[in-house]
């Protein structure tokens, strides 16, 4: 019988190029078509209700119950007119993916015999869904006997429709909280962190004389990387299907040395896939913008235009779902994992972040006047202070078993957090720091904050540093350490909270100086000098990959947590928790629960990999290796019969026998490694306490898994290609 992999390979090779279906459309006509947007709400809601809702969206105030009823009814009418049959609260539990539970709009009329259906969707249903929370991680906050969690619409993210073959479902972006009021999701703390940063940023703006802005929002643009491979290959690999990464597979013979894929011509099937994805994004009001090939073969990137953080994150969660679902249609399998292929560049999510006031001003934009620039420098100082003081918090926002393959593993970006500012800005900061020491005059002169002569920063740096985990790119910071499959929420929760804390500190310094009779200019001068000086060690413009940087970072006292387990242990440090607690983002109980869940997630992810390494090794790879061994054994016997023990090479038995023995040794090694992994797995499982299990998972299971893989990959290179069952890197990636 022919090996399935070979059959698939032939099928792909012989595939006739069928022309893809063409369907042209105008983005502006479909944009937001599936969203119950502000525009539609304005049309459909009574004026006063709409005005109050708009205020709720701007200020995050709670929605009045009477209004909720009216809004729900308008939503329902719109949804049903657009062929919706069901609605669902859509939320982001700590599993890392989104969750939903669908309910029909229709209920039988109270007179059961009349055969009629009534539709029903009240304000109560909009703000309070009640999914059974017992199957979502709560880190012990809620025991199953009180397994109730509530979901409530977050009005800052509009409801939308998703289509299936029989109709549509109305999706209600929601927060998810426990019966006792604790957050069980990632949206609640994100909203709270935005409030925190808004409050502190406004404090600074007021000092600069701005009396009109009434809110500041984090703006986020998320670049998403992903891999596409032929679905027929993926279906032959349980590791790709279930874990999103190959647990076995020898490095392909062609590497990515030439980087010939990067920004290369996009092949037609991929381009059609991308266009389809974008159309669906447009319909959902997601402003898709760029698409291109990435560095690794079969790797691609997509980025929308930035939006308020909450919306950007909801949209990114949806985008990941669209990418996965649409791939099927084009015969692809989409891999969002951080490291689907060992030895090939991994995937990340670049989280571009800035702060914008309610009047549309980007607070991280240098601006044109000395005053604007002084304010910009204060916010810049805030960022340096935030990243320097809360680097553990930020590192914690990037944990995950998948991301451990990138951070701290000789791949971009390094696990050490530092800020790239570029030469120009770094020298401005240097002169501000030095001025204080050398020259007293400057204090009198607003114009001399080293700023009046500050040229407009080029929006596109020529010396953009791709190795930095946190880079200033003209008018925003790009946090590059987020994993490609992860939610961007933790990163923005951490950024907003750290920034809120830093700005709070800076505001206090300025306020105190001014209370002591200093002018704003003097206060700004001395505060900037002090803050820049204290936090200059977080600035690093060099090569983040080098060994030298690790040593230098150690001298500067910057933490370097190479893996999830080592940094997660610090989640419960009071210095880490306090900043979140004091800024009203998460309570101690919520934080401890989260630490527990993140440990469990890590253990769960790796244990699935362990089980698959074992089952694929034992039931797929070993049998094929043994078949080949058997064949070689027969040959060796035959050779001995024909030629005697005489060797072609001196001293040894015939070469067939030599080959047989070598092969047998490798297979035995594989067999033993699998047994060892099995034993360690059982031992790890029996440990009590998440920390002990997580540590054993990292220190014993991962090395054992790597050993299994290493020998299997050697076998892949020598076992008869016709017998090898798993699609190879060569085939999948090129
Ligand atoms: P790169 O050159 O790194 O590939 P781009 O310059 O194309 O990236 O922008 C990357 C992302 O940054 C996009 O999503 C873009 O909308 C977003 N972005 C641009 N300006 C801002 C800003 N002020 N705040 C947040 N995100 C922004
Ligand atoms: Mg980028």
UniProtKB/TrEMBL annotation:
InterPro entries, sorted: Gln-synt_C (IPR040577), Gln_synt_N (IPR008147), Gln_synth/guanido_kin_cat_dom (IPR014746), Gln_synth_cat_dom (IPR008146), Gln_synth_gly_rich_site (IPR027303), GS_Type-3 (IPR052725), GSIII_N (IPR022147)
Family: Belongs to the glutamine synthetase family.
Sequence ranges assigned to domain GS beta-grasp in this UniProt record: 85-181
Top-rank taxon: Bacteria
Pfam families associated with the record: Gln-synt_C, Gln-synt_C-ter, GSIII_N
Gene3D superfamilies recorded: 1.20.120.1560, Glutamine synthetase/guanido kinase, catalytic domain (3.30.590.10)
Species, as recorded: Taurinivorans muris
SMART domains: Gln-synt_C
SUPFAM superfamilies (alphabetical): Glutamine synthetase/guanido kinase (SSF55931)
Domain GS catalytic, chain residue ranges per copy: 194-621
Protein name, entry field: Glutamine synthetase III
